[in-house]
Amino acid sequence: MSSPSPRSGYTLPVFATAAAVAALRYLQGERELESVELNLIEPAITVTIPIEQVSYIRAGMALAIARSDPGDNLDLTRHTPVWGVVEWRESEENGKRDNPIEIEAGEGIGRGENGRGNPGIHRYARQLLQANLSTCLKGDRAIRTTLILPEGRRLAQRTSLPAFGVVDGLSLLGTTGISQPLSAPGQLAEFRTILQEKARKFDRLVFCLGENGLSLAQQKGINPEQLVKTANWLGPMLAEAGIQQVKEILLWGYHGKLIKLAGGIFHTHHDLADGRLEILTAYCGKLGIPSHLLPELLNCGTVQNGLQILRDLERESGIPWVNRIYTDIAEEINRRAERYIYKQSQQHVIVNSVLFDRDRIITIATAPF
């Protein structure tokens, strides 16, 4: 008896847009708003999104609340409230008509650190908001839309967003409105099917943990047909590669994820297993980093911060600490992955690794690509 397919849901930009649209419609006189219809653009379909609450805040300003539903996915934003606040504003400034729809990031929406700007509301989210709000906006009016994630700051502490320069909240990420259940068990069967198809064509495959790695690999000229998404299912996917008698695998991922393999962690979802800083600190101690830096590394918050500590030490000492330590980590990743594959499939597969940092700069590569 086959198991049911995992249920897809919607990405955060969809719920933010639904809340904003409901608030606008309330401002324009609609009172019975249990749901709103949205054009997702990507894909080009219309969907109905429930609205939990909607009310005036004051004259000319309304608030609506939607609640995130990512489908059958290990997504920490599940059920989190998403607020959209819409208020009327002047549509004429300096004698010229400006954009009638102004979009702002409120509490719980991440911002960039170190002068990187505000990445919290990304291109697809803005496109979705503009398209759906403009359809609803009546007459010669202009609005200011503020998006709020009341639990965003707290939830962001459980993500790797700080490693990519996003602080104080979550980002409205994504290039589509559909949230595919990449971490749900049912998705693993689909990943395996894709791997099996590609293994029939290629002896060498490139495993990408996430979209960031996937796009960077393509930028570096790797054949897209050889790329395999793994999400956090590295262990089962490595085993499947052995079963399919793939001869070589190149692991391609953010160093804060792949480093877990050096500690024998083969499911990389942060809710299931972590230990990244402990692993980095252990390898630094093994290779003779000054001992007074070990507590700092262990408590530095993110692997990216740890990498910066090593880079600073390298500049001060003239010793290539980053290359030494990351080479050792990457080689251990390769060894452990090869042993894991053999244990699961009794097949010898060559494994190499490419690790990149927050700025998508490759830190170490153990083989040409």
Automatic annotation (TrEMBL):
It comes from the Bacteria. The lineage of its organism: Bacteria, Bacillati, Cyanobacteriota, Cyanophyceae, Desertifilales. Its EC number is 2.1.1.195. It is an enzyme of class 2 (transferase). The keyword Methyltransferase applies. It catalyses: Co-precorrin-5B + S-adenosyl-L-methionine = Co-precorrin-6A + S-adenosyl-L-homocysteine. Keywords: Cobalamin biosynthesis, Methyltransferase, S-adenosyl-L-methionine, Transferase. GO terms for molecular function: methyltransferase activity. Belongs to the CbiD family. This is Cobalt-precorrin-5B C(1)-methyltransferase.
